[in-house]
Design a protein that fits this description.
Elements (H helix, E strand, L loop, with lengths): L14 E5 L5 E5 L5 E4 L4 E4 L3 E5 L6 E6 L4 E6 L5 E5 L5 E3 L19 E7 L11 E6 L5 E10 L2 E12 L7 E6 L5 E5 L23 E5 L17 H6 L6 H12 L3 H12 L7 H16 L5 H7 L5 H13 L8 H8 L4 H13 L3 H11 L5 H14 L1 H10 L6 H10 L2 H4 L6 H8 L6 H15 L3 H15 L5 H9 L3 H5 L2 H10 L3 H15 L3 H7 L3 H10 L6 H6 L1 H6 L19 E2 L1 E6 L8 H5 L5 E5 L15 E11 L3 E10 L1 E6 L2 E6 L6 E9 L2 E11 L5 E8 L2 E5 L5 E3 L6 H11 L4 H13 L4 H8 L12 H14 L8 H14 L4 H14 L2 E8 L4 E2 L3 E5 L3 E7 L9 E3 L4 H10 L18 E4 L8 E7 L5 E6 L10 E7 L2 H6 L1 H7 L20 H4 L12 H10 L7 E2 L2 E2 L16 H9 L12 E5 L4 E9 L3 E5 L9 E4 ...
Length: 1180
Amino acid sequence: MLQGVCSADSHHSANAMLLGPDGWLYWSRGIFNIAAMETPTKTVRSGESGVHRFNPRTFEMEFHFPIGPNPHGDVFDQWGYQFANDGTSGTGSYVNIGKGIGNKQWFKMRVRPVAATGILSSSLFPEENQGNFLICNCIGFLGVLQHKVKYNGADITCEEVEPIVVSSDPNFRPSDVEVGGDGALYVADWQNAIIGHMQHNMRDPNRDDQHGRIYRVTAEGKDALAPSKLRGKPIPEVLAAFMSKENGTRYRARIELSGRKADEVVSSLNAWSKTLDPANPIHAQALLEGLWVLEEHRRPDLAWIAKTFQASEPRVRAAAIRSLGHWSGRVDAWGTLLLAAAKDESPLVRAEAVKAAVEFDGYDAIEAIFEASVRPTDPELDTVIRYAKQRAKIDQGLQDAIASKKQLSEAAMEYALKNASPDSLLKLPQSEKIYLAILDRSNASTGALRQALQGLSQMRKESSVPVVLKLVNDRDQAGQTEALKGLRELLLEQPVGEIRKYRGALQNLATKAKQADTRQLGFAAWATAEGNGDAPFATASASKQGLGDLLKAIPEIADQEVKKNLFQSARALMFELPGSLGAEPSSSGILQPGIQVDYFYPAPDNVAAETLAAIKPNEGGVVPQIVMNVPQRKQADDFALRFTGNVIIPQAGKYTFFVASDDGSRIYLDEKLLVDNDRLQGMTERSGTVELSAGPHKLMVTYFDNGGGDGLSVAWSGPGIQKQPIPTDRLTVGGSGQTLHDLAIRAVISIPGNEKEKFADLTKLVKSDHQRTTAVQALRTLPDSSWDPKELPSLVDNLVGYLSSIPAKLRTSGPATDTVELVKSLSSRLPADLAKAVSDRLGNLDVRTIAIGTVVERMIYDKERIVLEAGKPVEFRFANTDNMPHNFVIVQPGSLEEVGLSSDAGAQEPDARERNFVPKSDKILLASKLIGPGESQAISFDVPTEPGMYPYVCTYPGHWRRMFGVLVVVSSIEQYNNDPEAYLASNPLEIRDELLKSIGRNTEWKIEDLTGELAGLKQGRSYEVGKSLFAAASCVGCHKLGGEGKEFGPDLSKLDEKKMTADSILKSLLMPSAEIEDKYRARIFQMDSDAIITGMVVEESDKEIKVMVDPLAKGDPTVLDKEEIVGQKVSSVSTMPQGLLNKLTKEEILDLMAYVLARGDKKHPAFQGHEHGDHNHGDH
């Protein structure tokens, strides 16, 4: 029946095998196996861990649901809902969609590993046990756990209740659980000590096969049921078993009917169905079982679905619609039933309607998705609708319908109001609802907003101001602040005389609105209406919140005279607050790079700020960035992390923060929740957008992992910043965030005029060490005409003294570099001797910043030589613009080859990637992260005190022979710069690494440079040099020759004779992109996360593409989900790097070519007559 599941596989090959309600055979397989299964139409190859399925009638085969690494346990409940479990991690999921798409965990994992799962369905057990989910756990906790299944809207979860069986026998290994025909629960006990499969073969004779047991479990006081004897019985008698309360009896009845003749089964079913009333719950379940029999026999019957859909039990109705989706293309007139399901009162039914709609073509299918989308949803329904929108492309369909002026249904119109673009909405017949929808959009253009406001005002026959104010109030009450920016523009551009009529409403907005953005808008509009800021300022001064709102509103006021009127009031707040409000903390503490992380174990139920504040962390410390793998974390599962510090905003504007996590996470900004992603789930990303002023803002990110899969990724985007991880130099700890004094400084700077007063005030703040960071930023914005010459010397001296107090490694932080730039500007106005003294002082304090990058498609650094002074601090800013990952590692002189070979040898170690492919060695002085294309990292480094030639190298597997450079450490950089040759002559530095001798040798060889030398390939070449260069030039990373290397590219020992010529080989080496065979071409993929991934496709299926990003790396290929690919194209650039021969001499190139042309044969005539010294090979 099925081939490709091999008995030689050690374990996890095919377990949890069961027949699904749809007639497909389901089984699970683990990550260690790769299967190749031939079907009548194709060979299905799978390396996936998870649930697979096979159709025993059509022999179709497909991957169904990812879970792993070693899945054990797969069950269907009485309504056809499927739940899959992983053995290793002990986690499980509701299989909500299938089709190879994963889902979040459906229960809180407490124990592992799990050998099997089951559903308890038996009249021998009390009602509270019916339908409970069972878990067999075989290490640690030894027993069968029980979970109560819960239906939450469209979602299904379960919670642990009292276990069924628990044992203290250390060898009790519950490995399977089934309900027998007598109603008893049978538990298989392997009853063995566990012997690791990594140490002992599955056929090891030491494995015990004598002690297995089976336990029978029942509730007390219950008599055994009479097992149903169904084999060979008449069909009507088998159908009667569908009235049974036991899932197992009905399941076995379906299996029995699967072997009968389809025509006889269908005839009996039709006659039997006439006796069934869907209003009767038992009959409704029987109708569902009959529907599944029809599915298994491949006999579509729309009337049977319609009758089953009449059931009062929503889970029966949902199951009927699931079958409808399975019969797409085989039934007609399905639209009415699908639309009815999309409008059903039950979220479970609506979710199945959405999934079924994806399977059908035509407007009714899209209409069903519209109907479900405009009704109340929950997280699970949202997930299903997102899946449907992507698969059915309904947004594009809606846009096309609007453009073609198609009449939209009520549901389609409601969907359009929520989802269509403002421009598309303006193409529809105009109405109040359409205008309100446009005014609700944060992405609407100013023109569209004006048009909508004008239309709405005309319809309501009133002024625009009260219309806008009502909209603002409505958004404020609903917490919908995204649309406020557009409404703010509309309100503040109205005639002042018209705004003035509503001063009372504006005052209420400024003082009573729920959202800070709304109150700030209220203050800006109120001050504009008053013509001065006196009344708003007096009201705001009653509270710190009021003052904060007003100060943030001042830059938004368009009327410059109103702003000027507020200058003196805001100026006073730079120094002190009204006496009744109390003092604000100083914000001048040194901001240390990094972020505080606290580790909690076990994880609480959620990671709200208040939840974590109430418990004590197990460990804590400062780390450079927000990632899950921090040194403080000690457990792989059931832990929580809290990151707290500041994020430095480079310029004012709108910023979006993203967090993707498995399981839950949150982002707080300035002590307010911005992103709530806090739930049990697979890797899911959510985001929040907020307007921020420049400078530090308090940041908190919280995260928890419940078990199984895990992951945490935090990113941002903003003015001039594409979506990317928050750079390490933008995260700080220390300081107290923004105070009212800081806000006052920013407000004052936004007010035109009074530049000399601003300079005097800011100088006073700096000298008193108050609000230093913000004051320095503000001083940098003032024109030099405002500078007071008398203050400059003492101000500069203060600033340089501040820099002296900062530890060297912190002098590249934002506040420190701002201070350095301000000192340089101010000292330009000092007398020459003072300016020179300041420059010398800065030079002694300066932390040199060195940019080191990569060269696209060359696999080299953009600098191969860096000269530094011994003992000085520096900061490397490493940026990767190449298409493959790289790192930056500095090693001890003489250890380059040792470290490089170690990196290759350790590439397959389990923790290699976690170590960024940096080998474990005491010869390593500095190591960056492994950074991908477009990423960067700042790394502080204290230059060694001992002068020398220190190699730096990329230790990503296979890169070290080509991607390296030298750090020249000298005792005096000034003396070196004056005359490098003379300095090195009197202070010689030994090169202790052979590869470094090629530094500076960089010949851009052209074909014409070598064509005349090709005749010299016939004899007298060096076999040993050619072979060593085949490795040194990284040829072995992609090509096989002489029994060495990898077959990523063409096997050179088998190369076609037409290409095995000197001219062809030379052209391939010098111009690798000139001619590329199609099967070796790289492809460039644009992902929906904005990532660009380039590499060779090594495997492709219906759902994913496996890409080898770097041919020299020995790791696994990168797996791309096709649903996440936005676009792709074939690359015109070879994966073979350009410039492979640049560091070789002419003789070395000829030896390498001879080795290739000889196909690695030492006895080839090209190597005859060679003796060392016959020709000059240069440095080999």
